[in-house]
Records
---
Amino acid sequence: MPGVLLFLPFLLIRFGLLAAKNRQALPRAAHFAPMQGWEKIAYAVYQLATLGIFLALCASRIQTGSTGTWYGSLAVYLLGLVLCAVSVLHFAAPDQDGLNTQGIYRLSRNPMYLGYFVCFLGMALLTRSWVLLALAAIILTATMWPVISKLWSAAPQGLDARFYNRVCLPLGAALLVLMALCPWLGWGGGMRNKKSFWIVLAAAHLSGAGIWLLGYRQSVALLAAAAVVGILVGVGVLLARRDVWRHPPSLGALGAHLGMALAALGIAFSGPYTQDSEMALRQGESGTVGAYTATLLELQEGSRPGYDFIAARLQVSKNGKTVGEVAPERRLYDKFGNMQFSEVDVIPGLGNEVYASLLGLDGQSRVVVKVSVEPLVNWLWIGGTLMCFLPLLGLRRGKGRADGQGSGNAAPDGDAPKDTDAPEDGQTA
C-alpha cells in the first residue's frame, strides 16, 4: 500500500475532527506568534520537514507483516493518532479567556505537537523510511528537549534555531550533493552518462569558486549553493532531452529536484548571512544595517477593534536610493491583558528582504526598532511551492503506456540504450 495513505487519518483528525468540534478553532490552531530573525528560520525548517515527511510518504510503501516489529510500529502510529485526537478535542474547548487549560492541556502545553511527532514516528517505522525516521527523530528530540533536560537540570532548557542549523543544515547540504550527482549514477553501479556527470561537477566547482570569491565563505552555505547550481544544471541537461518530455514521471521528479534546490538556496543564505541591528531613534534620525539605512519618519498611536497599537513608519534606503517604507507595530490585545505583540513589516524582494519590528520605547522616549536584512529568503517559499505542485506533472500517463506497456523501470521510449542518461522511473531522485 502507498505510504501516503498513512497521512489521511492524520489529516482527518487535524482538520476534519477539529472543524466538526469547533470550526473557530481551526485558525487558532494554525496561529503562531510574530517571529523575528532566526525564529523564522526555525519555523521554515519545521514546515519544510513536515513537507519532507509528506513527500517521503508519497515515495514509500507500507511494509506489512506479522512480526513483532510491524505490530510495534503500528502501535506507535495508532498511539500518535489517539494523542492527536485527544489533543484536538480538548483544544476545541477553551475556557472563557480563550486559553486551553483543561484535559490533556493540564499535563502539557503542546500535546498536539507531541501527537504529531509520535504519529510521524509510526509512519516512518511502518514505511521503513530512514530519511523520514531521521527527520521525525530530530524534530521530536528538539521539541521535547525542555522535558528531556529535566532529567539532569532543575530548570528546563529549550533548543533555539541554532540547534536546527547545526544538525539539519549540514545534513541538508550533503543531501543536495547527492541530489546533484545521483541522476547520473546507475542503480547497479557505474555512470549512466559520464559527459553529463562531468558537466554537472564542473558547474558546481566553478560556481563554488565564484561564490567564494564574492565573499560568501561560510562552509555549509558555500557547499549547498554549489550543489544547487549542480542540480539546476543537471535539470537543464535532462530537460534538453526530448524523451524526458514524453515521460511524465521524469518531469515530476525533475520538478521536485528544482523546487528543493531553490528552497535550499534560500535556507543556505538567509540564515548565515542575515544582518540585523537594533536602533533607538527619534523622528528624523537614522540607523544602518549592512548597506541599508533606516530613517524614522513618524510614530503613531491609536486603537483598532480588539487592540491598541503604536506604529513606527520608517523609510529604508540603500546607497542613497529609497527602497521602500515599513510600518512595524506593537499591539496590545484586549483579550491578552498586558501581553504585547509585535507585528513585523517587510519590504519583499527576490534578492534581499528587509524586515522591521517595533520593540518599544526606551527611557528617553526613543523608538527602538530591529531591522533585519535577509538574502534570498523568498526563494525558500518559491521552491517549496514548486516542490508541492510540479511533481503533479508525473500523474499524467505517458505515450505508449496507456495499454500497460512497459514496466515501472523502463526508459521513456522503452528502447533507450543502457549507456545513455535516459531517465528511468524513480532514478532521477
---
Amino acid sequence: MTDAANNPPPDTPAPSHKASGFSASGAAILLRIGEAFTYKAFRNIWTAAFTSAVGTWMQRFAQQWLIFDLTKSVPTDAAFYLGVDAFAGNVPLLLFTLLGGVVADRYDRRYLLMGSQILQMCCALTLTALVWTDTVTIPSILALSFTAGTAQAFGGPSFQSLIPSLVPRKTLPNAIALNSIQFNLAQSVGPLIGGLILATLGLVGCFGLNGLSFLVVVAALAYVSIPAPNQTNRKPVLEELKGGLLYVGRGGALLSLTVLAVATTSLGLPIRAFLPVFADDPNTLSQMMASLGTGAVVGALIVAWLGTFNKMGLTLLSVIIAFGGLIAAFALTPVGAISYIILFFVGVALLIVFSLTASLVQLTVPDELRGRVMSIYLMAFRGGMPLGSLVSGYVVASIPWVTTESIIAVNGGLLALVATYFLIRSHGIREL
C-alpha cells in the first residue's frame, strides 16, 4: 500500500512501545537502535536492499571463481583478469556517479532505482545463460561487469537520496547506520551463501539467484510513495551538474566534509587492502577480517542507538583522530591478541566516521540538490579508496626502506593530523 502509514511526514513521531521492568529497558534499547525500522517504508526497503546485496556479494564471489577457473592455466593471467574485472565494475562509478546525481534530482528516484535494479538483473541473468550454455568468455564477463557498474552509478545516488524520504529528519542518522549494518552483513553473509550454492547448484545457481534477488527491490519500491523532486526552474543537465559542484565548492561545512571523506578513505582504508601482508597466512587473515567486520557492525549499532544528537560534527572529528591513531597503533603492534583488539576498534571507528559523515551531508543539503551533492560525496568516497591504496602500494614498492607497516602508520598519523586541523580551524564542522 502507498498510504501515509507507509511513508509518514517528516514530523511524524515514531511509534512508542510500553513494557515493564527489565523488559521495558531492553525494549527501549532495541527500539532506539532500530528506530528507523518503526517506519514501514524504510523497513521494507532495508529488507529488500539486504536481500539484493546478499545476492550481489554472492555473485561477486562466484564471478571471481569463474574468472579464475577460465584463466588458471596461467597464474599471472588469472591475477590480471581478476584485477581488470574489478576495474571494469568500478570505473563506471567514477565516470557516471556525478551524472547519476543530476538525474536523481530531475526524475522520480523510485523509477530510477527500479531501472538500475532491472538492468543489473538482466546482466546477472545474461551471465547465467552464458554459463548454462557454456558460451561464457572473459570479454563477455567484463562487458557485463561494466554494464552492471553503470547501473550502480545511476542507482547509488538515487538510493542515497531516497533514504531521507523514508524517515523523519531526526531519524536519518539511525537509518543511515542501519543501512551500514545491512551492507556489512551482506558482505559477510553473501560469500558464505555463495559457497554453499556453488557446491550444490553450481555457478548457474549463484548468478540466477542473484538475478532474482533484484526483483525483491523492485517489488518493495512499487509499494513506497515518496514526493517527487521539485521540477521548477530546472536547467540543462550540464548546468545543474555545475551547480552541484559549485554548491559543494563554495566552502563551509559541506566542502570540509567532502575533503574529510577523501582523507578518510585514501589514508584510512589502505589498512583493509594490506591486511594480507600483516597476516601472512589465510587463518590469521580471516581472524583479522572477522575482528574488523565485527567492529564495523558494533560501530553501526552505536550510531543507530545515538541517532541525532548535539555536537555531531565535533564527535565526528574526535572519532577520526582516534581512527587515525588506532591505524598507526595496529601497524606498529606485532600480530597477536592485542592487534586483533585494535582492529576491532578500527572497525568501530570506521563505521562511526562513515555513518556520521553521510548523516551530516544529508542533513545539510536541501532536497532539490540532494542527488547531486550525494553523488559528489560518493565520488569523493569511492575515489579515495583506490587512490590511497595505489599510492601507498607504489611508495612501498618504489622506496626500498619503506615497509608496509611504516606506510600504514604514516597514513594513520596523517589522517589524525588532518582531522586535528579541522578540529582547530573548524570550517563549520564543529558547529554541526
